[in-house]
Hints:
The chain is an alpha/beta fold. It folds into two domains: 1-87, no CATH class; 97-383. The protein has helices at 2-5, 43-49, 109-127, 140-153, 209-213, 237-243, 252-267, 311-327, 331-340, 375-383, and strands at residues 8-9, 16-17, 24-25, 40-41, 54-55, 58-59, 97-103, 131-133, 174-183, 189-200, 223-228, 279-283, 344-348. The protein has a seven-stranded mixed β-sheet, sandwiched between helices. Strands 1-2 form a two-stranded antiparallel sheet. A hairpin with a 5-residue loop joins strand 9 (174-183) and strand 10 (189-200). It is globular, with a radius of gyration of 22 Å. The two termini are 34 Å apart.
Amino acid sequence: MGLFNSTAPCPYCYTEINPRRLAYRCSGRHAAGKSQCKKEVDRVRLIHFSDSDPYWPVITPIGSASTRCPKCDADAGPPMCPECHSLLPAEYGADSALIGLVGVRRSGKTVMLSVLDAELQTSVANRFDAAIDAPGGRSRLARDLRIYREVMLKADGTLPAQTDSSGSGKKEPAVYSWRYSRRRAMGITRTASTVFSFYDNAGEDFETPDNALSQTYLGATSGVILLLDPFGFPTNRARANARGATLPESGPENVLDAVTLVLRTAGKIKRNRKIKQPIAVVISKIDAFFDGISADHPLRQPSSSRPVFDESESQTIHDHVGSLVEQWGGAGLIRKLEHNYATFRLFGASALGAEPDYSSARVNSRGLLPHRVAEPLLWLMASRGFIPTTGD
């Protein structure tokens, strides 16, 4: 009985739904002698995502009823979430990963996500010989990410504007499907597939505890990527001023406190218990500090190109980033991670790879040179057992 009542989160609205009790849409191919249905605004999508596009009517089968349109007897289209009426990818299932990408204003979050969108479908796909697609490519966020990257790639490329706050409302995330052949013991291979999605919050959503508590979606995530602006650490503020960079309004510890509050509240986690959701803490704009470390330093080396997650390499980066954070006056941040999270990992990454002109928000003339932007996601995927790890 439990199998038939099991649930999995929708990758679009993060609501727990039963994969055996999905909704469908009329295909519009009406049966002979029947009048064709008309497309209309779907009020569910309007409420969830402010989507005012016209759609075919919804079909909600009851029990073993046929999934045909009760009005025009048309075949049903692909399955969709009964809660938000988003089409579900073929790879959707109980192992779908929902990732919360959190960062305050000017931490480089939207830039990072724009570059990661491209990296997933190029370098990461090549590394794992995988088919990584965006079945939700027409969603607002996925579409915007591509536009942002195209603008940054221009000769006079500019950085994207700050993400607008959604308040307590939901925005449609960027959804991806990943399918590849994974080699097992004895040389046996099998096809592995999953769906994962990113939700891009506005910077001010986590600047205060009250704002953060409205971001209820975070409680449904299977992992969090927390992006921290290195200029927010006490000893780096003079460096930020010298470069003309705007200081973040909230310090790293305040942002972590807000995220921790949301996760504890959503999961009803007692004070003496640790949060089980893994959190990848990423120091963005790490290239701004390359002048202080040698060219052969691990933080300056590119990611491994092997089709596995290199745990030893990742742990080395974790240790070096932790040392930097402590030098920058962030020892309290490390302690809070240790006392509140069962699993966390530190990363250093740069979406641009070369410092921009902070005052004009223009990309460096060298163009986009992504550095380790996919590693936090790969760590989360390895933690779930979806991709192999060195030592497996």
